[in-house]
Amino acid sequence: LRDLRAHDLDLLLCESDPGEAARPGLELVSIQQTRLVAITAAEVSLSERWEDAALVHYRPGSVYRFSIDSYLEDHDLRPRIAAETDDALIMLSAVVRGGFTAFVPWSVAREPLAAGQVKIIAEVKPENVAVHALYHDIEAAAIARKAVEMLMSFAQQADLG
């Protein structure tokens, strides 16, 4: 955000709204609502309460952590937390190669799911979490606006697929 304000960046993509106080002179556009899916390797079978699941979880400061913890508690699921990271691609790799379980954005799981490497075992739609675009609210921001329009179009097409 600091680099955007200093005009070192034309466009910033983020997972949470920085708040109105941090946005004067900036446009905020929500591109896509985040949808997380819990995945495990296709051949893995979990117990009803997931006691045998080794979960690669988001770190406590992540925007996703509360939503996932709430989902697990609401559904009385008890996986063992095996590791923490905020990198969805590392989570995906752990699931595919190591038999772990993880909640990742749908966009990350889509290809491995189609290839039969993983299966979806749950879905969570975190509150107030989306992919947002921030850019300057000035005429020179025309390129950033065009990029945001293209991202929104791509996100809508991806949701349909």
Features of the shown structure:
5 helices; three-stranded antiparallel β-sheet; five-stranded mixed β-sheet; 161 residues; 8 strands; alpha/beta
What this model shows, in words?
Strand 4 (54-57), helix 2 (65-74) and strand 5 (80-84) form a beta-alpha-beta unit. The longest helix has 19 residues, at 142-160. This protein has helices spanning 2-5, 65-74, 88-98, 106-114, 142-160, and strands at 11-14, 26-33, 36-41, 54-57, 80-84, 101-105, 118-124, 130-136. The protein starts with a helix and ends with a helix. The chain is built from 5 helices and 8 strands. The strands form 2 sheets. Strands 5-4-6-3-7 form a 5-stranded mixed beta sheet. Strands 1-8-2 form a 3-stranded antiparallel beta sheet, covered by helices on one side.
The helix-and-strand class reads alpha/beta
Mean pLDDT: 88
C-alpha end-to-end distance: 32 Å
Tell me the Rg in angstroms.
Answer: 18 Å
**Main pleated sheet:** 5 strands, mixed
The best one-word shape is: elongated
Q: Proportion of β residues? A: 25-35%
Strand order of the largest sheet: 5-4-6-3-7
Total of helices: 5
Helix content: 25-40%
Uncertain residue ranges:
none
Order of helices and strands: HEEEEHEHEHEEH
Q: What is the number of beta strands?
A: 8
